[in-house]
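Sequence in, structure out. First:
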Amino acid sequence: MNAPRIVHGGGIAAAAARFGGRPEDWLDLSTGINPSPVALPAIDVAAWHRLPDRYRQDEARAAAACYYATPHALPLPVPGTQSVIQLLPRLVPAGQRAAVLSPTYGEYARVLDNAGVAVDRVASLHDITDAHGLVVVVNPNNPTGHLIDRDTLLALHARLSGKGGLLIVDEAFGDMQPETCIAPLAGDDMPGLLVFRSFGKFFGLAGLRLGFVIGESAVLDRIEDGLGPWAVSGPALTIATKLMTSDTGSIRDAITARKAALDATLTAAGLDVIGGTGLFSLVEHPDAAAIQEHLCRRRILVRPFDYNPHWLRFGLAADSRGDERLAAALADRAG
């Protein structure tokens, strides 16, 4: 029997149906996405009119290699990294188990479970054994923001690759700290390492459904075959090519300012920020469920977690008005 679907952030329509109001009346702080999407570059008509020609993919791969600083690999564009998570059961060596460093993004273990792969949700890398042929590490982690250093990941990779295993490192939230990322090391010289990168989170274009996978050519070919032809649209490839070769410093500065404003708002409300990344903050509170419901009644959506009822994840507001609205709602509860 398949595991139940996971309720992710971004469910504004469902929240509005339960608590009232129109979806556009809500302040969505439930996701880890740049709340100010970047301006879309011009897209030529042929990108819409024709199936995506190979040259568009080649240009996007070259742009991604520059952006992610991957001299040993050309990142493969995919229609969101979730599409590749669905293919992971094919990459588990026969007769071996998978391990997912947890708690983390729940789709990894769910997909592996549903495919009949024996999967262990491990709390520490020390729990990885020779029985594990595929290991997933989200780095920085979602939702805790915990970051594992490169040397530790490389030591784990050496253990796995030495026996034909595969290390998956999900760097979906790595754009704000590129110096910590392992993506630059991935490629044919590093067999057994596969890195996932998200495009839409940093650029605020999650609806584009675009990600990149970085690793050895043979594994990327298997993934591309598994996705089938024309998996990524021409407009998506064109947008990625142009934005990834542009100056992204102002985007990073804006996210940093928004994150500082969020943390100041949460701290002023007496909430304990225990983790996060540049795009979200994790709060721990014994009355987290009550806070989440109170905010919903004020048309503000944040992310609860069924596996830890004391946690709430807060995404970034687009501007100071959003911060003020959140502050007022939290003060109203305190009052």
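Second:
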Amino acid sequence: MTVTIYDVAREAKVSMATVSRVLNGNPNVKPETRKKVKEVIKRLNYRPNAIARGLASKKTTTVGVIIPDISNLYYSSLARGLDDIAEMYNYQTIITNTDNNPEKERDSFLNLVSKQVDGIVFLGGTINDETIEDIKNSNVPVVICGTSEKDANLPSVNIDYFKAIKEVATHLLDKGAKDIYFIKALYSEQLERHIEDGLKEAYKEYDLPFKEEYTREVATHYHAGREVFDRLIDEDDNVDVLLTMSDEAAVGMLHGALDRGISFPNRLQLVSCSNTRLVHMMRPPVTSIAIPLYDIGAVGMRLLTKYMKDEPVDEPNVILPYAIEYRASTK
């Protein structure tokens, strides 16, 4: 039979309110009473029901995490930072994977709200309009990490993608590149716009035309990167640089080039925007914008705790520093 808080109170010969205070770390319990209650909890192997506790305290100490693709290193790196901070503040995480499916994303959000989570974090991806309306209509605090949404007015943690892409594009153009293709990877439509705008601004400063065909779309996985490379190189032999948001897609592009005897960086250059461990494993190692993924997840979770605890928030939209790590895939 399931052990209840009533059983613990009876065995410890205290009130259920006293057991509750011990469970919640309330200091207004005598040390000898606290010790006795904890011994009974251990002996009976009592596990508090988070939902039942939530009904009484209106807090469940749980946080929902919505991830587009948990197998992707970009998202798992964000999640690692978040989970470490959640543990530090004694929150449990409930992770849901949406497979980049808008309907599944909305169902995940509503399901987490129904479980009375104290807060929700979106890790990357594009949040669809219906989900944004659900967020606005709910009382659950939400923070988005590694993504941004136009006019959503949601607390967020990111880097300045416009500035980062403009910086790396300026470097490439200064080294003689002309045709820089931006391979979108379905991380976030808004972030993709920031990246494309930064790329266009770099072209503008060099008084070079940015052609519409410079922008392509691809899924985030290896085979998609391989396929888009084959199509692209067949269409345009003058490609100078491939710039992609996805490290996994970058692996596919690099392998496609090597299979055709195309060398890096003299004939072709490759830049990625995630800087997961994959960029170090490739040969040649790939130049990347070093996004502090772990820190974005960690800071996002800390920001969420402030909203959940009604603490003051000085800046709801946090911008973290980035670096550009130039490696052998570029000049």
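Remark: The first strand starts at residue 62 and ends at 67.
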